[in-house]
Amino acid sequence: MPEDRNNIKSDLITIAKLNKQIDFNNVDSIRKLMLVLNKKEYFKSSLKTKYISILDKLCKSDDYTPECIVCKKTYGGRKPLCPDCEKTIITKSLSQSENYAAQKVVNDKKNEKCNKQTFNEQKNIKDNKEQSIERNAGGDNKKRIGILAGILFFVVAIIKVIGLWKTLGVGILGLSIYQGILYFKSEDKTKRQVLKVLIPLICAIMLFSIGKVNRSMDMIDLMGADEEVVYKYYDKDLFKSRINNVVYNVEGEPLISIKNSTGKVDLIYVGENVKSNVSVCGIHIGDSREKAFKVLEDDRYILVDSSVDPSGVLNDVYTYIMKGNPYKLMVTFDGQNVWCLTLMSN
Ligand SMILES: [Zn+2]
């Protein structure tokens, strides 16, 4: 009875692999290999007998150089398979899956030709399948668009509430957490995976801090803004109602007044003790006269009033109007430094 070709092929692959792994100049490792081969059924064909007999001879004589188990050439080395055959077998075994696929396609085609009727039936089934797949795809697309629209709406809502940078931060933080879960689940933890967790995490932290820097924006940006914009940065509950305004007056923060009739910011006062990252038109509390006037020299600012006390007892106040803005800026100096800054409607 002829041997199964597949068994021989599989044994040749085993031999080629052993050829690479085992040191055939070392009698000990050959002996170990023989023990293993006796215990477990690695071989499926008659090649086993030939292979074991080569191993046996290798163990008995250090000078023995076997002929290749495949091409029968004596190539001068101690391995049971010559380098050429080893290479051929390994290359073939790598492309075996492709061969299998190709062979399957050839067989299918043969079958189709043999029976045209079956072929036509198959074709009909195939067409029906394709049509139903297309129909399904149409449904899926509608579903997908629906889901996307939902997500988009949700994201826009979040941006409205917590701001763009924080929304981005939350999204990226989510990515970092997801990668973290993958990291803890996976068995072989790599540096690459750690980076996949850390990089988004750092980005998220940076985005959150941009949100904070934004919070201490230059107050000119809030002047005339709608109250909804203000409440993104300043807690709505801390605004106290006055007759014509609601006013935010919190220690260390700028004083912000929103006019009830317009719902817009109509006065901002930045005084001493305000956080150092708060500015007005680029001027900070405590800046020197020189530094402040360097900003105010710009022809966007037109000096309309100034009260300077020559005795130096009272504060000096300079009032500017701004080109293109219906606001007034009052800069008050206490001696040599900016003491307070006031923005008000013209
Ligand atoms: Zn060979």
**Largest sheet, described in full?**
8 strands, antiparallel
Choose one word for the global shape. Answer: elongated
State the helix count: 10
Radius of gyration: 41 Å
Low-confidence stretches: none
Give the DSSP E fraction (strand runs of 2 or more residues). Answer: 5-15%
Task: Characterise the protein shown here.
The protein is an alpha+beta fold and 346 residues long. The protein has three domains: 137 residues, no CATH class; 74 residues; 127 residues, CAP (Pathogenesis-related Protein p14a), CATH 3.40.33. It is built from ten helices and eight strands. A hairpin with a 2-residue loop joins strand 7 and strand 8. Helix 2 runs antiparallel to helix 3. The termini are far apart.
Task: Set out the fold topology.
Elements lengths: L4 H17 L5 H13 L7 H14 L22 H12 L1 H19 L1 H47 L1 H22 L5 H25 L11 H7 L5 E3 L3 E4 L6 E5 L4 E7 L18 H8 L4 E7 L8 E7 L4 E8 L2 E9 L1
Antiparallel strand pairs: 1-2, 2-3, 3-4, 4-8, 5-6, 6-7, 7-8
Helix pairs in contact: 1-4, 2-3, 6-7, 7-8
Short description:
The protein is of the alpha+beta class and 346 residues long.
Q: What characteristics describe this protein?
A:
Pathogenesis-related Protein p14a; 3 domains; alpha+beta; 346 residues; eight-stranded antiparallel beta sheet; binds zinc ion; 10 helices
